[in-house]
Structure formats: structure tokens, C-alpha cells
Design a protein that fits this description.
Blueprint (H helix, E strand, L loop, with lengths): L1 H16 L10 E6 L4 E6 L2 E9 L4 E2 L2 E2 L5 E10 L6 E2 L2 E2 L10 E7 L5 E7 L7 E7 L2 E4 L7 E4 L1 E15 L6 E16 L5 E10 L2 H6 L6 H4 L1 E8 L6 E4 L9 E11 L2 E12 L4 E4 L3
Antiparallel strand pairs: 1-2, 2-9, 3-6, 4-5, 6-11, 6-12, 7-8, 9-10, 10-14, 11-14, 12-13, 14-15, 15-16, 15-17, 16-19, 17-18, 18-21, 19-20
């Protein structure tokens, strides 16, 4: 199980800090050393034509449960913000199309506990730049019938300051923490709901306060600190618990300066100190 968890940690961290448009088979792990654990510096490229989840049909006694439809996400691009000129208030951040400013530090304790730390390498502004875009997100029936587009496209640009994942050797519980901010979020849902959101920001819980005080938010204000504990100590599922002992975790500010509905400008929306620290949920199949 520990090997699969290690692979999952690296995959999740890679997805959260992004990469470049090129086949996944071309990704490189370089500068790997075995001194007091393992350090891995990544140069990664990811392009995915389609991600498809199909709700498997079950037939019991000749009677179908009616499942068999699919959720699809097309044209997924995960990369660096190569053409972006700013990041968290810094000009000319030196972005490239590759994920080339991230190092993973991996250690395993005597009790089997696994620790994975993701942090920017030297250079740049100390932030791992993120660019994630998708094409259509749609649902469809078995065989592709009755296809409906839920989201026309998503574009998300921002950066990450830190990532930490711990796997408890005794319980296999996973603690995941990241400091990540979205500087420019565009969501087009015009085909389904007629809603278009442009230039949205998702940041830490001091971001709106800094702007209200006519002060410029710094990098720490622009990132949301997110924490979750994942446990399999439940029946047939995984429990996600967002409770945190730190007041600044799992509390975010959101600004949506441009929201339109049905082609008409609705205006701007500001959400201050949205906290989900008390959220706990169990995910299981059926």
C-alpha cells in the first residue's frame, strides 16, 4: 500500500502545481539523489485528450440498474504560465511552459510514515506557476447518446508556494496541505446555464481586507492555505475531514469582477472569509 500511496502523492502534487503541453510519456525526473531521503526536481509536460468516468451498469436477475452514462473532460492542458507577465504582483516572473521550479523531498520514518514536501527550487519569485485549461465538460448516456455540455471551458492561472503530504505509518491516514492561489480564473458555462465568469481570483482570507485598506496584497495574502485529512477508517469509503487547528487554513476570499448571465453583464461578486473548516464527508461507491 505504501508504494501506491507514494505514487499517488507524486501524481497529486504534480497535478496541483502543473506542467507543460507535451505527451506525458516525455516527462523527466532528474536530479534524483539518495542522501537522507530522496530529492526529485521535475520537468514535466502533460496533455490529455479526454478524461472519461463511466458509471458502470450492473445487471441483477436480468434487470439493469439504469447506469452506464459517462462524464467527460476534454482537451486538458496542464502547464506553466509561459505567456503571463505577472504572478502574485511580481512583474516578469520568468514563467516557462514547463514545470521546472518544483522540488519534492521524500523521507520515510522508522515507523513507516511517509513525508513528501513540495517546494519551489531556487530562482524566479519562489512560486511555482500554474496554468490549467480544459475544453468541454459534458455528460452523456451509454453509447454517446443525449450528450449535454455542462462547462464549455475553464482557464485557471495562479501559483503554489508549498505542498506537504504525510502518510501515517500506523493508520495509513493521509494529511495533505498546500498553499495555492488562483490569480485569473475564467469559466464559460454559456451552453448550459448561460453563465460566464471572467478574471476571478481565489486567495487567502486576508486578500479582500488588504484591498479594502488600499494596500497591495503580498504573496502570502494571495494564496489560500488548504488542509485535509483523508482516512479509510470508515465502512467502504474514504473520509475527508477539513478541520484544522490553524485559523488561517481552509478560509478563502473570492473576487469575481465580471459575471454575465444570458449575455448580459450581471456585475461583480465578492465573497469574504468563506470557511469550510467544519466540513467532513465520506466518499464511497454504490
Amino acid at each position: 500500500m505504501k508504494k501506491s500511496l507514494l505514487a499517488g502523492c507524486i501524481a497529486l502534487a504534480t497535478a496541483g502545481t502543473q506542467a507543460e503541453l507535451s505527451p506525458m510519456s516525455e516527462f523527466e525526473l532528474h536530479n534524483v539523489t539518495g542522501q537522507a531521503g530522496v530529492d526529485i526536481e521535475l520537468d514535466v509536460g502533460v496533455q490529455i485528450g479526454e478524461i472519461r468516468y463511466t458509471d458502470t451498469e450492473e445487471v441483477v436477475g436480468g434487470v439493469s440498474d439504469g447506469d452506464g452514462g459517462s462524464l467527460t473532460i476534454s482537451d486538458v492542458y496542464i502547464g506553466g504560465g509561459e505567456d503571463r507577465n505577472t504572478l502574485f504582483g511580481f512583474s516578469n516572473p520568468g514563467n516557462t511552459a514547463n514545470l521546472n521550479n518544483l522540488r519534492f523531498k521524500i523521507d520515510i520514518d522508522q515507523d513507516g510514515s511517509l513525508l513528501v514536501l513540495g517546494e519551489p527550487t531556487s530562482g524566479g519569485v519562489g512560486v511555482v506557476d500554474i496554468l490549467l485549461t480544459t475544453g468541454e465538460i459534458a455528460v452523456e448516456g451509454a453509447g454517446g447518446i443525449n450528450r449535454h455540455v455542462l462547462v464549455d471551458s475553464i482557464s485557471m492561472y495562479g501559483g503554489a508556494l508549498a505542498l506537504e503530504m504525510r502518510v501515517d505509518g500506523a493508520t495509513s491516514d493521509i494529511e495533505f496541505y498546500t498553499a495555492i492561489g488562483i490569480e485569473d480564473l475564467d469559466i464559460d458555462m454559456s451552453s448550459s446555464f448561460g453563465i460566464v465568469i471572467e478574471d476571478a481570483v481565489v486567495a487567502g482570507n486576508s486578500y479582500n481586507e488588504k484591498l479594502a485598506a488600499n494596500r497591495t496584497p503580498d504573496a502570502s495574502d494571495r494564496v489560500a492555505k488548504l488542509y485535509v485529512n483523508m482516512s479509510t477508517d470508515v465502512a467502504d469509503g474514504v473520509k475527508f475531514d477539513f478541520a484544522s487547528p490553524f485559523d488561517d487554513e481552509n478560509v478563502i476570499d473570492v473576487r469575481m469582477p465580471s459575471v454575465s448571465v444570458g449575455g448580459s453583464q450581471l456585475g461583480g461578486i465578492v465573497i469574504d472569509d468563506f470557511q469550510f473548516r467544519g466540513v467532513s464527508m465520506v466518499v464511497s461507491g454504490h
